[in-house]
Amino acid sequence: MSNGRDQVRLTDDEVQQLLHENLKVQVAANGKDGHPHLTTLFYVVRDGKIAFWTYGRSQKVVNLERDPRVTALVEDGVDYFELRGVSIEGRAEIVRDREEILEIGKAVSVRMFGVDSFEALGDIGMRTVEKQATKRVGVVIHPDRVASWDHRKMT
To answer: Residues 115-136: pLDDT tens digits?
Structure first.
């Protein structure tokens, strides 16, 4: 007999679908004093993993350099019976290779602006992303534990 959690759990395919449908992820890193440092970022899914870019000197990067443990949350829905989400506990890999940072930044920018390709950002947009890559790092979340729920499955 299954419990309520089993009833609302997403399948692996449903998890990937939810991640591809949403744009923003809430990321919690451990601050120096032990309190979670929570931020919201635009992201992409690369090889089934959440990836984003951020300023290399940001507090979240300082925290992740000290302690790579991270929790990420992607959720949607307004009404209780619409709520669904994926919570991922894992390890953050900080990407410092400029080409890989640029690839993550391009992909995030395309999703953020809802265009079909990097070139659709136009010359100014493409140059801006390329310039930003010099100040940023990429972050890839390697999951250790995934929890999911979809209240639309409740009967």
So the answer is: 999 999 999 999 999 999 999 9
d(CA 49, CA 142): 7
How is residue 34 annotated by DSSP?
Answer: S
Look at residues 108, 138, 106, 115 and name the one whose alpha carbon lies nearest to residue 42: 108
Question: pLDDT tens for residues 65-88?
Answer: 999 999 999 999 999 999 999 999
d(CA 7, CA 5): 5
* Helices 122-132, 98-113: crossing angle, 10 deg rounding: 140
Residue 112 in tokens: 């953020």
- Name the pTM for this structure: 0.93
Say whether 105 sits in a helix, a strand or coil: helix
